[in-house]
Amino acid sequence: MQQWQYAFPSIPDVLRQNRCLCPCKPFEEKEYYIPIRRTSNWFGAVAFCNSAGMEIAEVLNADEANALRQVMIEEESDDDMEFFWIGANDLGVQGTHRWGLTGRPVTYSNWTVGEPNNALSDDGSNQTERCAAIAKDTFEWNDFQCTQHKKFVCQQFRDE
């Protein structure tokens, strides 16, 4: 009787053969990128990152937070830009934060005490704070109105 041998493909092989809509490379390390002299509202930041073949940054654990911290420390100082957009937002359901385009729940965070607070705008527009940004000095998160202009962080996965 003839024996059949079947070699199961590795996870990276399956991911390469079945491209995901959003990057699905859980075993690779990320690189963070802060565009020089560019600011945008949160939606423009998402669009810019995507147009550059990246995505708005996701911080999934303490190791990624430390890697992002190093990139932000190396960023040339601009006193007017204290916060950097990341992908966390509660645009879908207020109070339920998810990551940018992947929709994954935010399970790791570093919110400033009292945040996120979804505060109403001071300009009478009734816009609430729904998008997250990281403070350059403390690396703590705060929620802001998504239409405010800030620097932002994109991410991409390192090539093997």
Automatic annotation (TrEMBL):
Keyword field contains Nucleus = no
Family matches, as PROSITE patterns: C_TYPE_LECTIN_1 (PS00615), C_TYPE_LECTIN_2 (PS50041)
Q: Which InterPro entries match?
A: C-type_lectin-like, C-type_lectin-like/link_sf, C-type_lectin/snaclec_domain, C-type_lectin_CS, CTDL_fold
Q: Where is the C-type lectin domain?
A: 27-155
Say if the entry is tagged with keyword Disulfide bond. yes
SMART domains hit by this protein: CLECT
Q: Which UniProt keywords apply?
A: Disulfide bond
* PANTHER family to which the protein is assigned, alphabetical: MANNOSE, PHOSPHOLIPASE, LECTIN RECEPTOR RELATED (PTHR22803)
Q: What is this protein called?
A: C-type lectin domain-containing protein
